[in-house]
Design goal:
The complex is a heterodimer of chains A (302) and B (277). Chain A is an all-alpha fold and 302 residues long. Chain A contains 13 helices and 2 strands; from the N terminus they run H-E-E-H-H-H-H-H-H-H-H-H-H-H-H. Chain A has a single domain (69-296), classed as MetI-like fold. Chain A has a two-stranded antiparallel ribbon with strand order 1-2. Chain B has 277 residues and is an all-alpha fold. Chain B has 2 domains: 2-59, no CATH class; 67-236, MetI-like (MetI-like fold, Orthogonal Bundle). Helices cover 74% and strands 0% of the residues of chain B. Chain B has 14 helices and no strands. Chain B has helices spanning 2-35, 58-66, 69-100, 106-115, 121-134, 141-145, 152-163, 167-175, 180-191, 193-209, 212-217, 226-236, 241-261, 263-275. In chain B, helix 3 (69-100) packs across helix 7, helix 3 packs across helix 10 and helix 12 (226-236) packs antiparallel against helix 13. Chain B starts with a helix and ends with a helix. The chains are: A mainly alpha (302), B mainly alpha (277). At the A-B interface, helix 1, helix 4, helix 5, helix 6 and helix 7 of A face helix 1, helix 3, helix 4, helix 5 and helix 9 of B.
């Protein structure tokens, strides 16, 4: 049955008019992101090619900032520190949060209360955490007066160049494990019980079933946790800013903080933008790794 | 018999390790609250004092005399609520648009929104500062709120959720003569309460905890949110540990109370934010 041209037309109208509403619903968000994300991202690249101190308009100077990065020892130290911070945090976070998830995905008495204790640091503000730990790490603080005294050591947790980076990593691990624990628990719950039953029938010990059933099936979650931890650590700022300002003598300086210092303390906006572009490239690489991994590693239980 | 004993002792050992670990995890929080009630010379006392003696509530009053902590607190609540309300509204609306309408360019626009998740804040921070300065929003609530008032993650989250709502509900409303915005408001929004609660908690916490952005756009004391206010407080009164801990406790109590009452939603929020990457 053929429809008359007018009928066809009004129907077309009806559908487009409705679809236009869809466009209207997303429009505010698109305008917002154009002003507050896409445009700033492009300008960041542009600023990185200029000399800009906020007071005078930016002056184009090509790749000069990037050349300078290669010889800026403070930048290179911050870059190295950032890698140490990210990897030094990611490994213990991974191991501890996976261990906790394995424990807390079983039923036992007092589970909820104990899990809450491990989760509690997650909800604290970074600034509060940094303030409290700064006092805990005080040379006469509760850490040195208990464990320090027991082991007969009294490190300067935040003022010794060799110790300070690890003190901050310790806080990061302490605050983050509860978060990743929850993600691992969700990952563990997604593994069907049948697999464990089958392993048991085959006479697998609990260690064997962990190694041959749990770990392989948990691979997507594990890679996800690993990459997210790294991405978060590469953008570190708050602990370092509040506790040490990157000191002593840049021992705890990281890229995220060095961008801020250059931009808003030394007013070298162009140079700071170039540093941030380096950070961007690192994050992009990590994100692409993650996208590849999550695409190719979708576990199917069928 | 011996196997049973070893199993029992293994269990005891497991519990002991877990409980000691849990106490160590909670120690900084407990110690912060306890020290906020101590006399200054009791803070570094040996052995470590957990229950303050004497209990000194005046610390809070005196701490608040050194800086407008109440004002910081208000700023954080106000900015956090404004950002949360706007994020929830626009994320749900855009999520609905992306999930249920087939307009030209939809997929490209959605991918563009998602791509902003990859941008580290430090990259856009400098241009963002310049934009906000050009708008005349330095040292203003607008400057704190508007650049943070929509989240790409929120749009993504709400779209995923709204995809699971059957089209029949919308069609039924259309037959009853509802307009498209009417469907959004009366049909979709009420169905999105669960993901909106989790997204709301998560957005509010993010805003409450944010230091870097306020640090850049706010120099006036009376506009500081708590995170910035506390940081400056530490810079000025860095060795008055009892006041520092009182101020830090004050900033933590509301979040702690929220956590105790909304634990389930908090954990949902964590899981959601875990999907963010």
């Amino acid at each position: 049955m053929a429809t008359s041209p007018t009928e066809h037309r009004s129907r077309w109208n009806f559908y487009t008019r409705r679809q236009i509403w869809g466009f209207i619903f997303v429009l505010p968000v698109m305008i917002f992101f154009t002003i507050f994300a896409f445009y700033p991202m492009l300008s960041a690249f542009y600023y990185s090619l200029t000399d800009y101190n906020l007071l005078k308009p930016p002056v184009f100077n090509g790749l000069a900032s990037y050349e300078r990065l290669l010889t800026d020892s403070r930048f290179l130290i911050a870059l190295k520190n950032t890698f140490v911070y990210a990897i030094g945090s990611a490994i213990p976070i991974f191991v501890i949060s996976l261990g906790l998830a394995l424990v807390f995905s079983r039923e036992f008495r007092g589970r909820n209360l104990l899990r809450t204790l491990y989760f509690a640091p997650v909800i604290l503000a970074g600034v509060v955490v940094a303030m409290v730990w700064r006092v805990i790490y005080h040379p006469y603080g509760p850490l040195n007066s208990t464990i320090g005294q027991l082991l007969n050591i009294a490190p300067n947790w935040l003022t010794d160049r060799a110790v300070a980076p690890w003190s901050i990593i310790g806080i990061n691990v302490w605050q983050s494990v509860g978060f990743y624990m929850i993600i691992f628990i969700a990952g563990l719950q997604a593994i069907p019980q049948d697999f464990y039953d089958a392993a048991k029938v085959d006479g697998a010990s609990s260690w064997q079933s962990f190694w041959h059933v749990t770990l392989p099936l948990l691979k997507p979650t594990s890679l996800f946790v690993m990459v997210i931890t790294l991405i978060n650590c590469f953008q570190a700022f708050t602990y370092q800013y509040v506790m040490t300002k990157g000191g002593p003598s840049d021992a705890t300086n990281v890229i995220g903080l060095y961008v801020y210092q250059n931009a808003f303390q030394y007013l070298r906006m162009g140079y700071a933008a170039a540093i941030s572009v380096v950070l961007f490239i690192i994050i992009i690489i990590l994100t692409l790794v993650q996208l590849r991994v999550t695409r190719s590693e979708e576990v199917s239980y069928v | 018999m011996s196997e049973r004993i070893s199993k029992l002792s293994l269990r005891t050992l497991g519990y002991t390790v877990l409980i000691i670990g849990g106490l160590l995890m909670a120690f900084p929080l407990v110690w912060m609250i306890s020290s906020s009630l101590k006399l200054p010379d009791k803070i570094f006392s040996i052995p470590v004092q957990i229950i303050p003696n004497p209990v000194r509530f005046q610390n809070y009053l005196e701490a608040a005399e050194l800086a407008p902590l109440g004002r910081y607190f208000f700023n954080s609540v106000f900015v956090g609520l404004a950002i949360t309300a706007s994020t929830l509204f626009f994320s749900t609306m855009a999520g609905y648009g992306f999930a249920k309408y087939k307009f030209w360019g939809r997929n490209v626009l959605f991918i563009m929104v998602l791509s902003t998740l990859m941008i580290p804040f430090q990259v856009i921070m400098i241009p963002l500062f310049v934009i906000v300065r050009n708008f005349g929003w330095l040292n203003s609530y607008q400057g704190l709120i508007i650049p943070a008032c929509i989240s790409a993650f929120g749009v993504f989250l709400m779209r995923q959720y709204i995809l699971t709502i059957p089209d029949e509900l919308m069609d039924a409303a259309r037959i009853d003569g509802a307009s498209e915005p009417g469907i959004f408001w009366h049909v979709i929004l009420p169905l999105c309460k669960a993901p909106m609660t989790a997204l709301g908690i998560f957005t509010f916490l993010d805003s409450w905890n944010n230091l870097l952005w306020p640090l850049i756009v706010i120099t006036k004391v009376e506009l500081r949110p708590l995170a910035l206010g506390l940081t400056e407080y530490q810079t000025v009164h860095g060795t008055q540990y009892h006041y520092l801990m009182a101020a830090a406790t004050m900033a933590t109590i509301p979040i702690l109370i929220m956590f105790i009452f909304l634990q389930r939603q908090f954990i949902r929020g964590v899981l959601l934010s875990g999907m963010k990457g």
